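Table S2 (text version). Query chain:
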Amino acid sequence: MSTAQLMRPTAVAPIAPPGPCPTLETRRLVLRPQRLGDAGSIAESLSDFQVTRMLARVPAPYHRQDALEWLVLRTSGTLPGWDFAITTGDDTLIGVVSIERRHGEWHLGYWLNRFYWGKGYMTEAVAAVAGRFFQRMPGEQLHSGVFADNPASLRVQEKLGFRITGCHEIYAVARAAMVAHLDTVLVAEAFSLPRP
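Corresponding structure-token output:
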């Protein structure tokens, strides 16, 4: 191979996005695309430090304007990925599940209003989203992770087949500190629906 051939950039095929964000229904939930009208519900949930302390990129305090700015970007249709509002049937957002493309990988993130914790809603929501993602993107992996002091979130992922791939510290904006973070990954072959 000549030096000119070695220096020539290799064409990399772009990764096709999973398509428009669908609406998914589970036994107890409706997961729909987020919309600008969700700003109030998002701000209410994320003004609770017990929620934001477990999220890497969310500031505290969190205001309605923060939610609007995030939603404008997420609902513009210009980003690959999905942004679901978790609702319990009355169409009010109680949490979020998102899949976004970062650093060449698909990343799953989620949060839930604290008043809905402990009911299995997040496992149900993440299972529905991961299942649909792998239907559309069977050869891809879903990367995620949790702060080391968030065992409930780690249980959600373990029930679905995620495995821990490493641990490092990342900056948590709401805590204004470096926090130990467990990196996780899920492949289609390992994905399993939780038992009801």
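Notes on Table S2: The mean pLDDT is 91. The longest helix spans residues 121-136.
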